[in-house]
């Protein structure tokens, strides 16, 4: 009786065994079914169960992560996000031309991860699908014609001139230069002048309402629309 009691005391409760079994099944299932390396027969980083390669993307940043993957695995890399649909990182120019020019009509929709279900982000170019996406693209494309880009050149050069003058002032004053802090307002000036027709001078007037609202939109907080999009888009299974 004492031996049996000891064994019974060491054995985990039934509910705990079921939970462990279910969690183990989910981890194995997501790892095996959604591993793009096996699905597409392509090289790539080993994904973590459920999280995929998300932690590595966060630690290196999107650009740093992509550059590291291309350097390590080549011009075609299988990437696993935290959702069930992963990505193929393409760095081959011939393949990119095939996808984006010759066969662009075959790649109208993005992957099948659920788009945000709240307005107005579910109608944006990033998440639109099918005919709605085609209509939006045909509307936006003329804005990037060679003629329109030439018209933007003077506006961009004016913003660049202000940036150069600000850099010269920093250099003459023997100050340390935070390149990101210098280029952020320059980028904002270019976007505001070419897209909205506004002459903000974000480099000299960082407290302009347009600039403050844009920064608030992109600030990484739990209530930021950007975070809401990411949170809505991250899921293991589609609903």
Automatic annotation (TrEMBL):
- Kindly state which keywords UniProt assigns to this record, in alphabetical order: Heme, Iron, Membrane, Metal-binding, Monooxygenase, Oxidoreductase, Transmembrane, Transmembrane helix
PANTHER family annotated for this entry?
CYTOCHROME P450 FAMILY 3, FATTY-ACID PEROXYGENASE
GO terms of molecular function: heme binding; iron ion binding; oxidoreductase activity, acting on paired donors, with incorporation or reduction of molecular oxygen; steroid hydroxylase activity
Q: What is this protein called?
A: Cytochrome P450 3A8
Question: Membrane: is it a keyword of this entry?
Answer: yes
Q: Which Gene3D superfamilies match?
A: Cytochrome P450
TM region(s), chain numbering? 15-34
Tell me which InterPro entries the record gives: Cyt_P450 (IPR001128), Cyt_P450_E_grp-II (IPR002402), Cyt_P450_sf (IPR036396), Cytochrome_P450_3A (IPR050705)
Q: Which family does it belong to?
A: Belongs to the cytochrome P450 family.
Pfam families this protein is in?
Answer: p450 (PF00067)
Among SUPFAM superfamilies, the record links this protein to: Cytochrome P450
- Cofactor(s) needed by this chain: heme
Which species? Lingula anatina
């Amino acid at each position: 009786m004492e031996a049996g009691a000891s064994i019974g005391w060491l054995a985990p409760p039934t509910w705990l065994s079921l939970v462990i079994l279910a969690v183990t099944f989910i981890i194995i299932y997501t790892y095996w079914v959604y591993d793009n390396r096996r699905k597409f027969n392509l090289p790539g980083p080993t994904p973590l169960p459920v999280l995929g390669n998300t932690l590595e993307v966060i630690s290196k940043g999107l650009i740093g992560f992509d550059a590291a993957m291309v350097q390590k695995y080549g011009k075609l890399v299988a990437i696993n996000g935290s959702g069930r649909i992963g990505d193929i990182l393409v760095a081959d120019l011939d393949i990119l031309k095939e996808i984006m020019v010759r066969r662009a009509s075959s790649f109208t929709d993005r992957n099948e991860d659920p788009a945000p279900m709240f307005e107005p982000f579910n109608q944006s170019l990033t998440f639109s699908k099918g005919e709605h996406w085609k209509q939006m693209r045909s509307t936006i494309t003329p804005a990037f014609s060679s003629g329109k880009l030439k018209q933007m050149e003077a506006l961009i050069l004016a913003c660049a001139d202000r940036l150069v003058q600000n850099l010269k002032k920093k250099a003459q004053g023997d100050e340390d230069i935070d390149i990101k802090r210098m280029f952020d307002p320059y980028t904002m000036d270019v976007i505001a002048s070419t897209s909205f027709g506004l002459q903000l001078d974000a480099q000299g007037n960082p407290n302009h309402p347009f600039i403050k609202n844009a920064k608030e939109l992109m600030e990484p907080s739990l209530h930021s629309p950007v975070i809401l999009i990411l949170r809505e888009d991250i899921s293991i299974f589609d609903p």
